[in-house]
Amino acid sequence: MPKGLSLHIGLNSVDPDRYDGWNGRLVACENDARDMAAIARANGFSDTLILTRDGTVDNITAQLREAAGQLKSGDILLFTYSGHGGQMPDLTGDADVETDRKDETLVFFDRQFLDDELYKEFQAFDQGVRIVAVLDCCHSGTSIESVQELLSPQALETQFGSSAPQQVEAAARVMPMDKQEQILERDRAFFEDLQRGLKKGNGKPADAVLIGACQDNQLASDGSVNGLFTEKLLKVWDNGGFRGGYREFHRDIQKHMPAIQSPNFYTTGTPSDAFLRQKPFTV
């Protein structure tokens, strides 16, 4: 019988000592994590909940590696994250890398976690393990120019209303551009070494289904109870009443979202058609 393990991360703030005074205060991320853990538990997963202060890189990677040691072909990992998203340029200066290449980041409690780091952890799972990732955070775009446009007063007013320039940190799950640049300059050597090391270890592909809260050039909204994306996900899930596979699940969530925040669906590796057709969160 297949085995399911799930890891649910919700960060309502980050450590200001690690982010030069920025605490990244949000409202609904812990609720998102609790609600996703409840879905997993109801569907036969053994769930682990990590909230705010426990959401460190060491703790989260330790949990992922423990899961990788337990799951075998035919089993499933569900990974959910609710918190801030950020972006970081490629720092290696390799000739074969385009100058505008960016790494998206998950803003963990103690530092930014590169998308390539997450993928490396997924690669450690046995071939045939189904991996599902649900990310309710901002993915800020594919170039510095698009991020600056995204965070302009005009763009923020379009998405969050006239008060948005003063309230963007409360309304959107994005690490502010000035803070991203400040942290990058402070920790440039660390992240350059990290990026170089990740490029050296390609490894086997991970067969994963990922559903993100928005497109690269959009912001993900926080909320008073749940993030906007998680709120609509829960509505579509309908306490387990949803019928369909992962693509249909994404499509139906998208129908409930405003055009300014359109959830993203993508896969890595070669997940099987049978996997994609399964009802979401099926062990």
From TrEMBL:
<dbReference type="Pfam" id="PF00656">
    <property type="entry name" value="Peptidase_C14"/>
</dbReference>
<dbReference type="InterPro" id="IPR029030">
    <property type="entry name" value="Caspase-like_dom_sf"/>
</dbReference>
<dbReference type="InterPro" id="IPR050452">
    <property type="entry name" value="Metacaspase"/>
</dbReference>
<dbReference type="InterPro" id="IPR011600">
    <property type="entry name" value="Pept_C14_caspase"/>
</dbReference>
<protein>
    <submittedName>
        <fullName>Caspase family protein</fullName>
    </submittedName>
</protein>
<feature type="domain" description="Peptidase C14 caspase">
    <location>
        <begin position="18"/>
        <end position="267"/>
    </location>
</feature>
